[in-house]
Write a structure and sequence with these properties.
With 130 residues, the chain is mainly α. It has a single domain, classed as Four Helix Bundle (Hemerythrin (Met), subunit A), CATH 1.20.120. Helix content is 84%, strand content 0%. It is elongated, with a radius of gyration of 16 Å.
């Protein structure tokens, strides 16, 4: 497997995750009979935020993974960033889906997402200037 193949793998997995979260929003919209906004429905609000939060972080993570692959980063770095991004987003989605307050999944998912973006960005900067 090449770094580009690894990038394609994590793009595909995270794309499916985003679609699953989008389908969850639609399911909650149908249940609550709300076509726009959340209509004050807490479960729909939570589903929207779970999906929205993934939309806020996944694209940036995938851009970083793609840039790492294109900059000839070691494949272990690409896999490390890809696995961590994917795991962090699944944990965050699970944590926020089950509770709108603090939860293990939400806290660890957020922390791992931030670490992924910082480490990946740092590696890209280091690669670019060295």
């Amino acid at each position: 497997m090449t770094a580009i193949n690894a990038f394609a793998l994590y793009t595909g997995i995270n794309g499916l995750l985003l679609m699953a979260l989008a389908f969850n929003v639609v399911r909650h919209r149908q249940r609550a009979k709300v076509g726009f906004g959340t209509g004050g429905d807490e479960a729909l609000e939570r589903a929207c935020r779970v999906h929205g939060n993934a939309i806020e972080y996944v694209p940036v993570g995938l851009i970083i993974i793609g840039a790492l692959a294109l900059s000839s980063a070691p494949i272990l770095v690409v896999h490390g960033i890809g696995i961590t991004l994917t795991l962090s987003r699944v944990l965050h989605a699970w944590g926020l889906s089950t509770s709108s307050g603090t939860s293990f999944g939400r806290a660890v998912g957020t922390l791992l997402t931030w670490v992924t973006l910082i480490v990946g960005s740092g590696f890209l900067i280091w690669t670019a200037i060295s």
